[in-house]
Amino acid sequence: MLLYSPHITPRLSYITEFIGRELFAQPIGLTSNREEFMASGQPGINYSKEELGGAEFFLEPASLLFESYIRRQEIECFELNYHKAFFQTRGDFPFDILAASFYLISRYEEYLPHPRDEYGRYPYRESLAHREGFLQLPLVNIWIHEFRLALERKFPALVFRRPAFGFIPTYDIDIAYSFLHKGAYRNAGALARLFLKGRFRAALQRIQVLRGRRADPFDAYEWLDSLHLYCRMKAQYFFLVAREQKGVDRNISPSKKGMQDLVRYHASGYTIGLHPSWQSGDQEKLLDEELEWLSRISERKISSSRQHYIRMDLPQTYRRLGKAGIEKDFSMGYGSINGFRASVASSFFWFDLEKGEQTPLQVFPFCFMDANSYYEQKYTPRQALDELMQYYQSVKRVNGLMITIWHNHFLGTDPQFEGWKEVYELFLKEEVYWDM
């Protein structure tokens, strides 16, 4: 497949490579030579303002991919086959899929001035996806499927990639244990508070765990091992290893043997990554220290990460991760609602919009996090299962990549999270059943 455009820009090169790999498992060829395009004999896309009169697929462009600056775009959505589209143009396809996909995947709107939520993050309510009601859809994948059908009608002999549905279960270990390995001082203080409040049963439970007479409420690790084995799934774990315990960074200290043993155990059988602390967002050197510690203890090269509390500010966060040596990031989603932040259920390379260049950092977007469902959306376990199934069906329909986030403390025995463990087990086992 060859695409002709009078001007080849970094933005155009980036999005045609992404869509080309989704459609054909290789980039779409580009040329700015009109005569070369007309004489090529290949199926071709004419991405210009005028039809050339040949057998080309005519796609009239919007202006976005030919700009090098960032400005507020005038976007008017319209209905197309029961979903939204924008950058409507004329030609063999009703809108500029290249520009619209670039706008969503690059997170263009996050570079514009915007308010911030209580944690200083980009609020989902500011997004086009939320305003237009497609936050729960992998809209870019839906568009690509329809684009493929249009290309097939024009060029019946074209051979397309046959994508397969993918699923990656991931876990954030930011509270490794409820009682264990927290040190005598923290446990003594907690016990004293429980006794003062008359919560004697809770105090007894804590004592029994510390004496090894019952399992820690947040210890779901062996259960997860068995579940992964049964479902034949390869999971990924992200560890919070903040040296100083403060604010929302409240995991077990990385100096504790129990924490180190936990990291080594998972590194021996799973892919592990860093869960950069909140503090590392304010002190850049901490990111390098946490990466070094996790790598040294696990005896593995750590090349993947996911931001704690999904603390992300574009482009600074991704530049910092790239500089530190992170190759894959799993933070593309919201920390306050479930859905598709970049409107896509496929991995993609991050495009630094300010610098106008594609980077080596590969982004893996997630669509569901247990904490969003429980704390933010106030769902019951049953409602969360329904939500999970909606995302599963949406991603399966486009043969995309589904990534979920769970926390070990949701999957243990703490009464606060009763029912969530069973929901997760049911979802994973049903997912295996439906794939058979």
Structure, explained:
The protein is α/β, with parallel strands linked by helices and 436 residues long. It folds into three domains: 153 residues, no CATH class; 233 residues, Glycoside hydrolase/deacetylase (TIM Barrel); 32 residues. The chain is 37% helix and 13% strand. The protein has 14 helices and 15 strands. The strands form four sheets. A five-stranded parallel sheet has the order 9-8-7-15-14. Strands 2-1-3-4 form a four-stranded parallel sheet. Strands 10-11-13-12 form a four-stranded mixed sheet. α3 packs antiparallel against α5. The longest helix is centred in the last third of the chain and has 17 residues.
Using brief descriptors, characterize the structure shown.
436 residues, alpha/beta, TIM Barrel, four-stranded parallel sheet, 15 strands, 37% helix, 13% strand, elongated
Topology:
Blueprint: E1 2-4, H1 10-24, E2 29-31, H2 34-39, E3 44-46, E4 57-58, E5 78-80, E6 83-85, H3 97-105, H4 128-131, H5 139-154, E7 166-173, H6 183-196, H7 200-210, H8 221-231, E8 236-239, H9 257-269, E9 271-274, H10 284-298, E10 304-305, H11 316-324, E11 328-329, E12 348-352, E13 357-363, E14 368-369, H12 370-376, H13 381-397, E15 401-407, H14 420-435
Parallel strand pairs: 1-2, 1-3, 3-4, 7-8, 7-15, 8-9, 10-11, 11-13, 14-15
Antiparallel strand pairs: 5-6, 12-13
Work out the strand percent.
Answer: 5-15%
**From the helix content, strand content and strand pairing, which structural class follows?**
alpha/beta
Report the CATH topology name of the largest domain.
TIM Barrel
State the total count of DSSP E strands.
Answer: 15
Under CATH at level 1, the class of the largest domain stands as Alpha Beta
Q: What is the percent of helical residues?
A: 25-40%
Could you describe the largest sheet, including whether it forms a barrel?
5 strands, parallel
The main sheet orders its strands as 9-8-7-15-14
**Low-confidence region ranges:** none
Cα radius of gyration in angstroms? 24 Å
Q: In angstroms, what separates the terminal alpha carbons?
A: 34 Å
The CATH superfamily of the largest domain bears the name: Glycoside hydrolase/deacetylase
CATH architecture of the largest domain: Alpha-Beta Barrel
